[in-house]
Write the structure tokens for this entry.
Amino acid sequence: MNDLDRQIEEALDAEDRALHREFGEQGLYAQWFGVYRGKQAWIAIIVTIVSFVAAMIAFYSIYRAVGAGDFDTAAPWAAAATVLLLMVSFMKIWFWMRMESNRVIREVKRLELQIARLNMARAA
């Protein structure tokens, strides 16, 4: 916890501290599984399945390329493996970007909650 986090924690009242602990920063696994929730969960599921299948085919292509006797036989398998591994890499990048966007959305919603609570406190 850095100084800014400590100052924010000290400025909060007991109810805000409880909310901050409940809706605080998530760990890696919570963020990872969070991609599989919400309106776009089906996209994450499809991307995961396609990525897994592409990785398996890429490993098979590498196996065939290594076991090929000559360059003419190995080249297509190596090219297929390269394309498939790039495809898997792009899907993983998309997945991590989705995790990051979920984290930012979560923080924005926390700010919205704090603003709404502040407005309610001022109105009362």
